[in-house]
Write a structure and sequence with these properties.
By secondary structure, the chain is α/β, with parallel strands linked by helices. It is 33% helix and 20% strand. The strands form two sheets. The chain has a ten-stranded mixed β-sheet with strand order 1-2-3-4-7-8-9-10-11-12. Strands 5-6 form a two-stranded antiparallel sheet. Helix 4 packs across helix 5, helix 6 packs parallel to helix 8 and helix 9 crosses helix 10. The protein is elongated and about 70 Å long.
Length: 336
Amino acid sequence: MALPNIRSITQAEFLRVFRELGEPAYKAEALKQFLFKEGVTDFEHVTTLSLAVRRQLALRYDAVMPEIASRAVANDGTVKVLLNWAGTTAEAVLMPSVKGKTICLSAQSGCRLRCGFCATGTLGLKRNLTCGEILDQILVLSGEGAISRVVVMGMGEPMENLDELIPALAFAISEKGHSLSRKKVTVSTVGLCPEIERFAAEGPGVELAISLHATTDEIRTMLMPVNKKYPIEMLMRSARIYAERANAKVTIEYTLLEDVNDTDADAGRLARISRKYQMPVNLIRYNKVSDLPFSPSPRLDEFALMLKGKALGVTVRRSKGSSIQAACGQLAGALR
């Protein structure tokens, strides 16, 4: 019978094992360094642990890396991998730019929130990824070159998986981990208000991106059913709480959809939201997804000009990897 993979156990179980072995918590963190930074797959090489502990771990677990079920490279240099942990799959993306390489991570396999313009939502939720599975994505894609930034904007809703995401991000920014500045890590959320406020209190103070995508509750509820529970004003108040308590930058993400959210009136309302809550806007060109009834707005540049000088700030995200279905909203990888 195959042993469970230590990379796929929950953070709580990871810590429980060390308690059962009579080892302090810092030993568990040391093992993380070997597994998720150095890529060790044999406990015998974890020299900071005693031989007895290494043997006990080897009796309970294996440490094999996830299978790279597929790998695709776009003409702009974007790399997308589909990772497989014994049947659970998720996609991660490496995006090159003149400023360095950014890794886009997934927090879940699939997603239950079913935003109308997103391919991942068509899958439904398979399960949360564990802390180790999130870190595996960084480890695998770090093999493609040194990384300068991490965004948690892949498959799933990060706020639904804080028990695993928070320790993963803590490792990513730690000196014994990937030594990333917290200002070089951004988590995107559709807007689960209680979880945003929990993330402010317990998280490592990374940057936050709010997936707004509409300026009225009517349109946002049509696009994003979560808005029924957490409408725009409630969401933006929680986002402001995050900015203040975490002392971190919060950005508004806005994907422009033709004849849905791209009117002059939308631009005016978005500018007012940006000013009221003191958050800049990141405009996103919609990446077409087969079988979904939306198209990219031809007004992207015009819309950006309408925001300029009225919103707190505005940038246009030029998505990468669309030729391999690796751009924003296109991740829907599954084993075939």
